[in-house]
Write a structure and sequence with these properties.
Number of helices: 15
Mean pLDDT: 89
Strand order of the largest sheet: 1-2-6-5-4-3-7-8-9
Low-confidence stretches: 296-310
CATH class of the largest domain: Alpha Beta
Strand content: 5-15%
Structural class: alpha/beta
Order of helices and strands: HHHHHEEEHEHEHEHEHEHEHHEHHEE
Distance between the termini: 47 Å
Length: 370
């Protein structure tokens, strides 16, 4: 069914298309003049009274007379099945309204049955280890089984692992984009984006046609944390978008949790440091968030442990080989040396451990713990 668009909707989109007008300035204009309709085309002398509106911006607002660019935005939305959602709409993420300067509107593509239910963000590095992928899938799956909406950013690595796990379980997951909804990024996640929409939602605060510029992603990260009860960092380097998202969450008075990783792994340095500094609360099981932060989550028993315990039937020789492995891939020669066994014995143990779900064969005689 076609969405009804008002003149105020057109005007609001028009304001967003003016370079230099962010959410904060748009809200100041709306507060001063009552509506976007009443703002566009207003005399520069009126606009210059608004804090942050200089001569250049006032001139751009005054001269914005054609609604054609706005119509093109709504046509682009219609072509991909997206909706225009103002901040006062019931469809707008409720928690996002509570942050400082939320976007006045969002573009959203969602399933007809989608509802926001206790959203929690999962973020991390674009280049995870096998350990990072494993714990991300475990925690995303545990949260999804309890009816929680998993929020992330559609990026490679941890984001993708979280989204894919929830999609496979038939749960709800939300992806915030750092581009227009017609510019899915990364491109090889277009299929994943379609799968997300079947049960969940794609969201962008950027106009259609916006390319995935690097400057867009901090703004996207702010919305990921702002729409969520809590942000979980599963694996992250010291520098990266995941830690930016964690800082936004703290600024928004939201909980931050981090899963510890191997001290030898650079990919875990960021999460470990968040815990060490007291910035994030240590997370070892899904119950760390389910029981305390989200009492409204759907009840029911789940296997919430993030770390797999050994099958008691595994032999001592297998355990020796397992102890020689790390969460980052190690070569067969190194494993043999540390486990003090020959290649044939090591391969037998590695096969047993792989069947037990304890390790991953990474190819090229490389193996890693799960």
């Amino acid at each position: 069914m076609a969405q009804e668009i008002s003149s105020e909707d057109y005007a609001l989109v028009g304001l967003s298309l003016i370079r230099g007008l962010g959410p904060h300035k748009i809200r100041l204009l709306l507060k001063a003049f009552g509506s976007a309709d009443a703002t566009l085309g207003r005399p520069a002398s009126d606009l210059l009274r608004i804090p942050g509106i200089g001569a250049k911006l006032a001139k751009a607002i005054t001269r914005f007379s054609s609604l054609e660019p706005c119509r093109r935005q709504f046509e682009a939305a219609s072509s991909v099945g997206a909706y225009f959602v103002r901040s006062e709409s019931r469809t707008y993420p409720g928690l996002l309204r509570e942050i400082f300067d939320p976007p006045p509107f969002l573009w959203m593509i969602q399933s007809d049955s989608f509802v926001w239910q206790t959203p929690v963000a999962i973020v991390g590095t674009r280049k995870p280890s096998s350990y990072g992928r494993h714990v991300t899938s475990k925690v995303a799956g545990a949260l999804s089984e309890r009816g929680i909406t998993v929020v992330s950013g559609l990026a490679h690595g941890i984001d993708a692992a979280a989204h894919k796990t929830v999609v496979l379980q038939g749960g709800r997951t939300v992806a915030f984009l750092g581009s227009g909804l017609d510019k899915i990024y990364p491109r090889n996640h277009r299929r994943l984006a379609k799968e997300i929409v079947e049960q969940g939602c794609l969201i962008s605060s950027f106009p259609f046609g916006t390319e995935p510029d690097a400057t867009n992603f901090p703004q996207r990260n702010r919305l990921i944390s702002g729409s969520s009860h809590a942000t979980i960092v599963t694996e992250a380097y010291v520098r990266g978008g995941a830690l930016i998202t964690a800082r936004f969450a703290l600024d928004q008075n939201r909980e931050v949790l981090a899963i510890p990783g191997p001290v030898t792994s650079p990919a875990s340095e960021g999460a470990n440091k968040l815990i060490q500094d007291g910035t994030a609360r240590l997370m070892l099981t899904a119950e760390d968030i389910l029981g305390e932060l989200i009492p409204a989550a759907r009840p029911g028993h789940i296997d919430s442990g993030l770390f797999r315990t050994l099958n008691p039937t595994i032999s001592q020789a297998d355990k020796n080989v397992l102890e020689a492995l790390d969460y980052t891939p190690r070569h067969l020669d190194e494993i043999c040396e540390d486990a003090r066994c020959n290649v044939s014995q090591a391969l037998d143990s590695l096969l047993n451990l792989e069947f037990a779900g304890c390790i991953q064969n990474c190819g090229g005689n490389l193996y890693a713990r799960l």
